[in-house]
Specification:
This is Short-chain fatty acids transporter. By secondary structure, the protein is mostly helical. The chain has 20 helices and 4 strands. It has helices at 2-13, 47-58, 60-79, 81-92, 97-115, 121-134, 139-156, 161-170, 179-206, 214-221, 234-257, 261-278, 282-296, 298-316, 320-331, 336-350, 357-374, 379-393, 401-410, 414-441, and strands at residues 17-18, 21-24, 27-30, 36-37. The chain is globular, with a radius of gyration of 23 Å.
């Protein structure tokens, strides 16, 4: 709301202007050199509040996709399939202790790049802490296995509809296109995360006093409860299978039939309802779980509408093209490789104020796409800059409710987390910057 208010004020300060646009190859392109100033269109006080429902309406397809997917996952979560499935996978490792860290992180990374695992991360952090302590490590190792595992996949984002899917939709690119390069970068990101956690875990095992959370381990490390595994039933396996099939079906539909969020939403609703009925929740139990799942995702869905409201104000005040013109004028003589890094850094720090990936995509991509067009930068690179800037900062900034919630349940302070994670975050940023530079040179 503060950013919407600032946007309202800017409609009186920034001169109104417009570019001409043309349709070409299925994309709406800005015509270079066509910018011209027009009569000022300062918005009214009431427009500040009208922007919210208008934003919800214009972003309705994405808003309801988030709601419906949240509902479907709420059903599967109610069945216990997620927790018991991962518990079963962990239990199956048996005595292969050292493999626990890379395998656990890989599992969570797959959930990160396929379903955009976010709020659910918090649920698994206590399990990760117990596993780490059982293996002779500390709470930081356990929390990092879950948080950084999911984050690695989220950064990869190959099939993540909430970030890459939304950004590519706004950029008028085929959904999930360019997944090959993202997969290669994801492997480097995951390897860096696993190596960081393994090195730290071994150091702690050799000398427990080297633990960043040594005081916490002195108080709780020897008094932790054992993991109580519940049986992973065939019904739960089938419920989980429904969601997996929905993801596969959606990916096939996107590449084969150019499906949008509407078709994807329908498939997740169907998968969720089947999962509930197969698991024995019954009709009432299934729909109760569906509503609870939508409640859990309320913040993510609503923030999309509010973020879209920012763009509504900029467009209504006719200043969005003026901002684009000003930024392209400043960056016109700057090498494209530097522009991409500037976009990456901009998205990185903006995540402090807009911690929702979908919301950030809807706020910034309408600005970034025309800028990249005018500076002759491929739109896929602009999506990469958004994707990496948004996702890396999710494990850094304290405005990330998911990060702070995960740290809270592990009883780890934010300062302790920074001490542990800052080198990896810096390494991730370097990997992504190099990858974007190579992609630019290769004409990605």
């Amino acid at each position: 709301m503060m950013i919407i208010a600032v946007a309202c004020v800017l409609t009186y300060i920034i001169p109104a202007g417009e570019y001409k646009r043309e349709e070409k190859g299925g994309q709406t392109l800005v015509v270079p050199g066509s910018y011209h100033e027009i009569t000022q269109h300062g918005v009214s006080f009431l427009d500040l509040f009208r922007a919210v429902p208008e934003g919800l309406l214009t972003g309705g397809e994405i808003v309801f996709y988030i709601f419906l997917v949240g509902g479907a996952f709420g059903i599967v979560h109610r069945t216990g399939a997620f927790e018991n499935g991962i518990n079963q996978a962990i239990k199956s490792l048996g005595s292969s202790k050292i493999l626990m860290i890379p395998l656990t992180m890989t599992v969570f990374s797959i959930l990160g790049f396929s379903i955009g695992l976010a709020e659910e991360t918090i649920i698994f952090v206590p399990i990760g802490v117990i596993i780490a302590r059982t293996l002779g490590y500390d709470a930081m190792t356990g929390a990092a296995m879950v948080i950084l595992g999911a984050a690695s996949g989220f950064i990869g984002g190959m099939l993540n509809p909430f970030t890459v899917g939304v950004a590519q939709t706004v950029a008028e690119l085929p959904m999930f296109s360019g997944w090959g390069l993202r997969t290669i970068i994801y492997l480097f990101i995951l390897a860096a995360a696993i190596s960081t956690v393994l090195i730290y875990a071994r150091k702690v095992k050799r000398n427990p006093k080297k633990s960043i959370v040594y005081q916490l381990e002195k108080e709780e490390g020897n008094s932790h409860k054992e993991i109580k595994y519940e049986r992973f039933t065939k019904r739960q396996a089938l419920a989980l299978g429904m969601i997996v099939l929905a993801i596969i079906f959606n990916v096939y539909g996107i590449f084969r039939y150019e499906w949008t969020f509407n078709q994807m939403s329908a498939n997740f609703v169907l998968a969720g309802l089947l999962a509930g009925l197969i698991s024995g929740l019954g009709l009432n139990g299934t729909f109760d779980a569906f509503i609870d799942g939508m409640k859990d995702i309320l913040f993510g869905a609503m923030i999309v509408g509010f973020a879209k409201g920012i763009v509504v104000i900029l467009e209504k005040g006719k200043i969005i093209d003026s901002i684009i013109h000003g930024m392209t004028t400043l960056l016109n003589d700057v090498p494209s490789s530097i522009v991409i890094i500037v976009m990456f850094v901009f998205q990185f720090f903006l995540n402090f104020f807009i911690p929702s990936g979908s919301g950030q995509a809807l706020t910034t991509m309408p600005l970034m796409v025309p800028i990249s067009d005018l500076l002759h930068i491929n739109r896929q690179l602009t999506v990469l800059a958004f994707q990496y800037g948004d996702s890396i900062s999710n494990v850094l900034f304290p405005t990330s409710a998911i990060l702070m919630g995960a740290l809270a349940v592990a009883k780890i302070s934010y300062v302790q987390w920074l001490k542990f994670a800052w080198k990896l975050i810096a390494l991730w940023a370097i990997i992504c910057a190099i990858a974007m530079s190579i992609a630019l040179l290769a004409g990605y």
